[in-house]
Amino acid sequence: MSPKLKMTSSNLDFYYGDFQALHDVSLEFQERQVTALSSLVDDLQLHSRIVSGTFELNRTRLDLTELADEAMETLQPLAERRQVKLLLEADQRVILDADGSQLSRVVRNLLDNAIRHAPADSVVLVQVSRAQGSATLRVIDEGAGFPTEFRERAFEPFTRADEARDLRTGTAGLGLSIAKGIITAHSGTVGLGDGPGGIVEIRLPL
Q1: Residue 114: which of 185, 155, 162 has the closest Cα?
Q2: Cα separation, 126 vs 202, whole angstroms
Q3: What is the mean pLDDT of the chain?
Q4: N or C, which end of the chain has less CB nearby within 10 Å?
Q5: Could you tell me the pTM of the whole model?
Q6: Is 148 helix (H, G, I), strand (E, B) or coil?
Q7: How many whole angstroms separate alpha carbon 54 and alpha carbon 38?
Q8: d(CA 21, CA 15)
Q9: Backbone phi, then psi, for 38, in 5-degree steps?
Q10: Would you say residue 54 has pLDDT above 90?
Q11: What sign results for the dihedral spanned by CA atoms 173, 177, 183, 186?
Q12: CA-based nearest residue to 182, from 116, 70, 101
């Protein structure tokens, strides 16, 4: 047999392993794209309900501190990949009537944004407190903060603080707009803090 046509089992194993690795990477990429697309469709549908006035809350009695802790647990894998530490500060239980599913969605979104904008080896802090008849939840990261030009339109739909990052992750810039819609439906407010770093603050009536 010509030397050019020789193919040993070790050669076959090598090529198969290389092909399998490429196949796995391709599947992982496709799964990420499907997840991003599904999330985008979900955001668009929810935003449409908020704008049209058909969005409704399913209120129950819940603990905002516990809700924040559960959201942090959900985002822990992302935080570990980004080498960011999540820290919760809450000196007491904060009980209120709210839609747990939608409120959790808001907190997870804020955490996701904070983690992705935080530098490696930094902390994303979640503070939960109550005072003067209202509950407050703040998400604070040690990143660069919000650009001045973004702050003025941060809660408008399809607004991105980082165009390149959001185009890569497949988001439509609806996160803060949806958050405002959900919090407003709870008769609450949401706004950006002055920094340093990125700060988003939610206030809800007790």
Answers
A1: 162
A2: 11
A3: 81
A4: N
A5: 0.75
A6: helix
A7: 21
A8: 10
A9: -60, -40
A10: no
A11: negative
A12: 101
